[in-house]
Amino acid sequence: MARLKIILLLTVAVVLFGTSTASAEAPFITYTFDKDDYPIYTQTAYQPIGTIDGFDIPSDESDPLAGESDPLFQPEDIFIDKNDTIYVADTGNSRIVVFDSFGNFQRIVGEDVLSKPTGVFVDDEGFIYVADYQKKKVFKFKKDGSLAFEYEKPESVIYGKKSPFNPTKVIIDKQKNVYIVGDGSTQGLIQLGPEGDFLGYYGGNRTSFDFVQQMQKMLYTEKQYSQLMKKYPPSATNVAVDDEGLIYTSTAGLKTETIKKLNVAGENLLPDVSASNNIADITVDQDKNIFAVDSKYGYIFEYDPDGNLLFVFGGLNTGNQRLGLFKTPSGIAVSSDHKLFVLDKKQSNIQILKPTEFTSLIHDAIALNSDGKYLESEQYWNEVLKRNSMFSLAHNGIGKAAFKKGNYEKALEEFRLAGNDESLSEAYWEIRRNWLMKYVSWVLIGIVLLGLSIFLVKRLYRKYGYGSKMVDLWNKFRKIEIVSHLLHVFRMLRHPVDGFYELRTNQRTSVFSATLLLLFLFIVHIYTIFETNALFSDVDTNRVNIMTELYKVYLPLLAWVICNYLISTINDGIGKFKSVYIGTVYALSPYLIFSIPVTLMSKGLTNMEVVLYDFSKKAIILWSAFLLFMMVKEIHSYEIGQTIKNMVLSVAGMLVLGIISFILFGLSNQVIDFMYSIFQEVKLRV
Question: How many domains does the chain fold into?
Fold first, then answer.
């Protein structure tokens, strides 16, 4: 969703400033996203080179309209076959118009058969399949345009009599099975055999989490809930197929998995690709790169075969009639030489865009990577980085080449720049393995010697008093008041009940020691942010704001102390404000003591040992929560039930306090603005 918001902002920028910021060849900006989902402007990816607006009616003395121009009207789909022949579903004119690769008119198909063709597909044998929404059929035409077959609503009991059959798009797989996008077909693509027999549904979408519906399910009776309108997943809006027979779908209105690449079982092979909520069409080129076009904002999205975003470009035509901008794009197709053909329903034309040299470099590198030729692709990626050093996919490609050559340190750095955590983990695994093979014997010897040394020192001290002066010095140091107070955090871990009792009676702690620990808490927090292994951290350290982190740490703690004390005063709690403050800080002893060691431990782990890191972090949180529970119980002398009640009310009080603070902050800003406007008015008039 963060990407979609940024896309909308960039859309406004294009509308307001597009012609001044783009190059002379392309009236739009081109950008991608880095590993942290921040937009990065790139070189122009595609340049508009022309349009196809219609065709001239061939000369025929018997036809009074011969030689006249015949434009397209509200076309809704476009397809380019293996020979680069262009097929357009000219919906408003109830026909399929065929052009050659240069945009020259070839022929018309289905003019006397079709009513509202909204989807067109051509198989390897040249058969033309057309989805007709109004006639509720899929028509199959021969090369010469004659009708070969009609696919109608399946009569299968499994399909259901009440299930709608409103074809909008169609594709054919290698086995000649027909996949139909049906308007209202919520169970997935309608799959028919070559003879029209119903094979089932394929690649259906899933319903997203609905908080309101979940609450209704919890609160309503089974009868009441069954009477509510059921929530169905949205149906796919478009479909494409690659040379290997893998099927791709796009769905408008989804927040996640807008574009999917489906295997034989109908499972998505791509990560969460959320291009836009208004994807009109998708297509795939011969290198498996994925293209999608947005019907509302006119954007074109290009992804590599793994679903990584390459480019976003295009934009809305707001009346300046610039080539490369669109009004309502409805279809997209790509030719064998990587030209893009974008169909515009409102402008009733096809715009042609060709890739720039920068894009061709990326395409060549991706094709080599897809074939596993990482070393051969390195020169292309290096050339890409010379032109745009922030292009993440290039860093990833160079990292794979370095990994292939055994240069794991360089691979580690490149994968870190690319944000590829999986490959980063593999590179780190190899570095760690090499280090262990080189030094593991010395490490084991060192551990054995250290253990023997500790054993001997203890024996010598007990038998001969060896080192007694150091022991006496340590004991004197421990008895210093502030040191004793600070070391009380370790007693909290072993004996929390006694520790909080001593805290309440002011025997072993003080406000000063708690304040020092509170300052140390922030230091530990900052250390964990900057030093945690990047594999286990989703924080961009380059964008960390110290003041923001200060608020994150101290404001919740302050709110907890205030609310817990106020709640306890009306619920028979005996703890003082000072005791609540000190107890809260000391309850965080596990975090204070173990966070730094766990952070250091993370540096030696890979993704395969992530369970160790996660377990350690959760153990620290649970241990601190337990001590906080014991603090409330012992400080206020509560029973268990009273303790739970106090903590729940304290959290509720924190929420109320946060809402009030937010309201007051907003009002204070308005008051300041009002006073400032009065001051300016007086200043101008006096």
Answer: 2
Residue 464, pLDDT score: 79
Distance CA 496, CA 498 (A): 6
Q: What is the pLDDT of residue 466?
A: 77
DSSP structure string for 631-681: HHHHHTT--HHHHHHHHHHHHHHHHHHHHHHHHHHHHHHHHHHHHHHHHHH
Distance CA(290)–CA(676), nearest Å, equals: 54
Amino acid (1-letter code) at residue 427: A
Give the domain-ending residue among 436, 466, 496.
Answer: 466
Strands 128-132 and 117-122: antiparallel
> What average pLDDT values come out for the chain (686 residues) when binned by 10 residues?
50 42 67 82 94 73 57 95 96 96 93 95 96 96 95 89 91 94 89 94 71 54 53 83 93 85 89 84 95 94 94 88 90 96 95 96 94 93 93 93 93 89 88 87 89 84 77 81 88 86 78 93 94 82 86 92 90 87 93 94 85 92 94 90 92 89 73 69 61
491 shares its domain with 450: no
612 occurs within a structural domain: yes
Contact (Cβ atoms closer than 8 angstroms) between residue 481 and residue 561: no
Domain with 567 in it: 480-669
First to last CA, the chain: 51
328 falls within a domain: no
Cα distances (angstroms) measured from residue 522 to each of 41, 526, 528, 543, 641: 36, 6, 10, 18, 32
- SS3 call for 455: helix
Structure-token match 């499994």, residue found: 158
**Pair (491, 438) in one structural domain:** no
Q: Output the domain CATH number for residue 454.
A: 1.25.40
Res 79: pLDDT:
98
Same domain, 635 and 513: yes
